[in-house]
Automatic annotation (TrEMBL):
Residues making up the signal peptide according to the UniProt record: none
Coiled coil segments of this chain: none
Protein name from the UniProt record: Histidine phosphatase family protein
Pfam families on file: His_Phos_1
InterPro entries, sorted: His_Pase_superF_clade-1 (IPR013078), His_PPase_superfam (IPR029033), PG/BPGM_mutase_AS (IPR001345), PGM_Phosphatase (IPR050275)
Species the sequence originates in: Lactiplantibacillus modestisalitolerans
Length: 197
């Protein structure tokens, strides 16, 4: 029987609002981010969606979001933290490179500046979430992560063209639903609460 993973992006932060590269550094949730996270929690209640386990990255914006969504106990996982952007952390988003035309993401760009590349991020997120879903009694799981990390996870299961065709946009507090069986994830749906990243 397939299991279900709800993979959520954290709420809007000050750096999101200021259009700054966040990565491994952190900034607090804004009032909008707090309100959106609470709306997600209410949505889960209204839809009678419950979880047997909850996880988030080790970054404060993810744990703060999770605590607004649910009061259940949770575990922090380094494997689902945001893409590390090296010396670009905290700088303006206008410094982000154009996407690699083949890999459809930042590719190797940030490696030369002390950050991670796309394959490193994807490998750790896929490995971490696979181990989570393979644990006993993990039928319906909530995990809160970050846009870059989630995008790389999504690119493992959908092509760039499929992502574009489906109009998938990872706004703050976006919730992606995946089924999991036989070591493989399958994208099911996405729900966005915020229009702006």
């Amino acid at each position: 029987m397939a299991k279900t993973l709800y993979l959520m992006r954290h709420g809007q932060t000050l750096f999101n609002r200021l259009k700054r590269i966040q990565g491994a550094c952190d900034s607090p949730l804004t009032e909008q981010g707090i309100a959106s996270a609470k709306r997600v929690g209410q949505y889960f209640q209204d839809q009678q969606i419950s979880f047997d386990h909850a996880y988030c990255s080790t970054q404060e914006r993810a744990s703060d979001t999770l605590e607004l969504v649910t009061k259940m106990p949770y575990e922090r996982l380094k494997g689902i933290k945001e893409w590390g952007f090296g010396v670009f952390e905290g700088e303006s988003e206008v410094l982000n490179p154009q996407p690699d035309p083949v890999r459809h993401n930042h590719g190797d760009f940030f490696l030369q500046y002390g950050g991670e590349n796309d394959r490193q991020v994807q490998a750790r997120v896929v490995r971490t979430l696979t181990k989570v879903m393979e644990r006993p009694n993990h039928q319906q799981v909530l995990a809160v992560s970050h846009a870059g990390a989630i995008h790389m996870f999504l690119q493992k299961w959908l092509t760039a063209e499929e992502i574009k065709q489906r109009g998938i946009y990872l706004g703050n507090c976006a919730v992606l639903k995946f089924s999991f069986a036989d070591g493989q994830f399958a994208f099911q749906s996405i729900k966005n609460w915020d229009e702006q990243a």
